[in-house]
Amino acid sequence: MKATGIIKRWLLNSLGVILLILVMLVLTLSLVIQSYVYNGIQQAINGRSGELTNVFADYGRKSAKEFSTAARNYVENFPNKESMELMVYNSNGKIIITSVGFDPDQTQPMPDYKAALKSADGYGTWTGKLTSGEKVMAVTRVMRNDYGSFVGAIRYVVSLEEADRQVFLIVGMLILAGLLVILFVIISSYYFMNSIISPIKEIGATAKRIVQGDFNVRIRKQNDDEIGRLCDTINEMADELGMAEKMKNDFISSVSHELRTPLTAIKGWAETMQGGDIDRQTQERGMSIIIHESERLSGIVEELLDFSRMQSGRMTLTMDKIDILAELGEAVYMFSERAKNEHKFLLYEEPEILSPVLGDINRLRQVFINIIDNALKYTSEGGTISVTASESDGMIRVVISDNGCGIPAEHLPNVKKKFYKANQTIRGSGIGLALADEIMALHSGSLEIESHEGVGTAVTIAIPTLKQLETKFTENEEMKEERNTEFNG
Description:
By secondary structure, the protein is an alpha+beta fold. The chain has eleven helices and twelve strands. Strand 11 (about 445-450) and strand 12 (about 455-465) form a beta hairpin.
């Protein structure tokens, strides 16, 4: 793996923090271990130096010469000569004997001796290096007689070289353990990061193919976790995009066909009439076709413009108090002649009266026309289209039903989606129902479709009455006033 992106950030953040913690831990443990070892050595020296209380129990009544003799015997019989060195100072501050048997080096640094002379309890300690470079720990005990006069001192010196080697060995083991921990973290993190980065790379590559238009590509889901759910989401997105692309292509093809048909008729009859030598009856027929196809072409273009406004959220309504019954009756009347020519039965059960509604007269008429037009298109010759209207619970419901081919169950949930056409053999752009559904939603109403294949389709258009809207508005205002009163209280 290249140390870029996520891995680079992980190396700089997580691994950097782990490394810093381990370094601090090793340093702290090293100091603790060294302090522990040094304290142990000092305790051992202090234990030995404490023996002087028993060995020289009556030295306070003896002279300096007697002290020197007793100290010499103590050094000669000292049991730990191999682990520590003893030095005896006389009353003049000179080293008169050592446990190693060599002439003492009077030039060696002895801060512990000086500290013991100044100390009230006659005790001094020092840790440092000799002139030879050897690191030692020294403790000095000063002896005074009953009159407070200095009669001599005994110094204990222990080499710290072996102790430092032990500390270094322990620290080395700690460092090795830290390195093993880091190695384990790197190896385990490698597989963990790889389990994240590999799917992400695959997701990126798949997303790039989707961007390039390959909506059939899918991501292989490896684990049921966040990345697995992301894979499912992207696969679902590819399905939706593929379906949308197909619907878009079908829409373009359908609209192109819808536009081409009237244009071909207009062009054909215009060329025929331009040639001259045609009788008046043929000319009137041609003009009638041109006008009819021009109106059809204008309707298609207007539907496309409405759809564009709906998509961009720019569709506006001119709301007014209207008689919905009159608009429904006019829409039915518009299709009466067509139904008769196509040998279909258009039945309208007109109620006596319906309450007025608040709506856009042109948009509601557009909804009725669209639904009745669809019912005629999908009903075979000899079929029946029924239109009824009723009012209940403050809602006016217009039901337009037919006994046509019906909509297959798998297509029914999608028929109100833009560009979607359940039947590609029937003319239409595939945006009429989507547009009608949006218009009804803007009127605080609804458009519901119930259909069974081979049985027929029923479309229910529901819109609240003007009185119902006024009641809801009043209730909302009262609720707002109550909330304001509670807040101010």
